[in-house]
Amino acid sequence: METAVHEMRADQKFSVTILFNGVPRSFEVEPNQAVQALLSRALQQFGITAQQHTYGLFPVGSTTELPTNLSLKAAGVKPGEQLILRPRAVAGG
């Protein structure tokens, strides 16, 4: 019996939804695309021009930001996943 393997190919595009202030937008991405590239596209699509360095992408229900230096695949982003674009937590001082 053959077991189906659902491994994403590096060139296999898929969609994710990014929410900003409750507004959803769909983005077509590739597994090897950098999280930083998706973050930049999201900031542009939502018209965020000020303080861009303070924003990050977070999986829905998580307080852990996706590392911008990883690929989407390495960060664990799956097809159809919803992400939230929001300001990063500011470290107290």
Characterization of the model:
Helix content is 12%, strand content 27%. The chain has 93 residues and is of the alpha+beta class. It has one domain: Roll (Ubiquitin-like (UB roll)), CATH 3.10.20. A four-stranded mixed sheet has the order 2-1-4-3, with helices on one face. The chain is globular, with a radius of gyration of 14 Å. The termini are far apart.
Classify the fold: give the CATH topology: Ubiquitin-like (UB roll)
Please give the count of helices: 1
Question: How many angstroms does the end-to-end distance come to?
Answer: 59 Å
Q: Based on CA inertia axes, which overall geometry fits?
A: globular
Per CATH, which architecture? Roll
User: What profile does the largest beta sheet have?
Assistant: 4 strands, mixed
Total strands: the figure is 4
Tell me the strand order in the biggest sheet.
2-1-4-3
Bin the strand percentage: 25-35%
- Integer-rounded radius of gyration: 14 Å
Q: CATH homologous superfamily - what is it?
A: Phosphatidylinositol 3-kinase Catalytic Subunit, Chain A, domain 1
Q: Which structural class best describes the helix and strand composition?
A: alpha+beta
Q: What sequence of helices (H) and strands (E) makes up the elements?
A: EEHEE
Helix content percent band = 10-25%
The CATH C-level class name: Alpha Beta
